[in-house]
Design brief:
The complex is a heterodimer of chains A (108) and B (344). Chain A has a domain of 62 residues: CDGSH iron-sulfur domain, mitoNEET-type (Ribosomal Protein L9, domain 1, 3-Layer(aba) Sandwich), CATH 3.40.5. In chain A, 5% of the residues lie in helices and 16% in strands. Chain A is mainly beta and 108 residues long. Chain B folds into two domains: 77 residues, no CATH class; 247 residues, Heme oxygenase-like (Heme Oxygenase, Chain A), CATH 1.20.910. About 3% of the residues of chain B have low confidence. Helix content of chain B is 61%, strand content 0%. Chain B starts with 8 loop residues before the first helix and ends in a 5-residue tail after the last helix. The chains are: A mainly beta (108), B mainly alpha (344). The interface between A and B is medium-sized, with 23 and 27 residues.
Amino acid sequence: MAPRVRGPLLPGRRGSNRTVRMFPLLPAGKRGGMANEGEDTVTVTPCEDGPLLVRGPFRLVTQDGEPIPAGRATVALCRCGLSSTKPFCDGSHKAAGFRAPSEPDPAA
Amino acid sequence: MRLPAARGPVTATLFERLAGPPDDRPLPLDVTGAAPADPDVQLALFACYELHYRGFEDVDDRWEWQPSLLAARAALERRFEAALARAVPRPPLVEPQGVRRALNELVAADDGPSLSEYLARRADRGQFREFVIHRSIYQLKEADPHTWAIPRLAGGPKAALVEIQADEYGGGRRERMHSELFRATMRGLGLDDSYGAYLDRVPGITLAISNAMSLFGLHRRRRGALAGHLAALEMTSSLPNRRYAAGLRRLGGDAGAARFYDEHVQADAVHEQIAAHDLCGGLAAAEPSLAGDILFGAACALELERRWAAYVLARWERGRSSLLETAPPADARQESTGQVVGLR
């Protein structure tokens, strides 16, 4: 199990006191449950020919630690490099014909 | 919302009865001679369905389940389903595990005219307002038709649909509900954001888009088509919404007005993955007999959108409005404009 830190998740955010994993990337497999609700696992799912879906009690931050508002419980992060709304997916992978499997490549 | 003006003999008969107390005298609607996507038929069907959503202030709520009304609605639905079956080729049958790929191929093969590119680069403010008025028929109840499927699904597909719908409804926060964001867009364009305000102004093909969702949503037997319909909407949304946002900003729309479109770029990039894989793929795996209807529902969404876009662009290219100029007279036999690209 990854180590975890307990304590305020985001400074100044309504006294939030949730649990956050330092290294939240567990093998994607099962679908995540309702994000942020009684679950402390973040799930990242590479979608075939598409983005990375992120579910669970994640937080997005810049390299300087500034929060990036996710806007929703489940987000799609760009994996083709072409999105105009990075780090989020905007569907550009389809027009570009981006190809990538959901499974690890090469197969482990 | 109040009952709209009748657009022909079918709606004239129906609305006259709906204005009175519910009863079980037969409600014979003569739809045999009408083209199935005749605006008169589409408006009648739309009104029957609306009884299941927000209803009409001037219609007794008990009409919703009145057998005479349901019999009349069934006659309208038979015409509409037959029209859809003729207009939309049934996609080739695939194995359940091939549904996701088949959805991708359907969407990729969609060669409809690009209304979004026109709106991004060329439309004037009046045309953008028209576009928003058309869309208001569905988007002021955005997500509601597909919510009908939730109690009809189980397990993974149900969880997938709830995940999408929860986001559509703003995660339970009113100001983030997509229908509320759309109201802000309407206000930003100086339009009336009240529910159903423009029902009298839209042609039959616009009503047909909403009616297809309600048809699939209100009949459990069409749950596969409803799932496929949702997937098609989500899979064809992100890039056009980026263009809508660009068009609105080009025309002076502020961030509040454009937010609806900005929101859909990112939201639907998430939803399309869930809808195609977890909802439709999962449903086909759980109920393999639904695979064909999942793809048919998606094809219906694409075809109706294509016909609607062709209709709107054709009107604009001729320098005309894509809306009815005024409420149609109650005795109008048919609205000729809706016939151009309507389902026959």
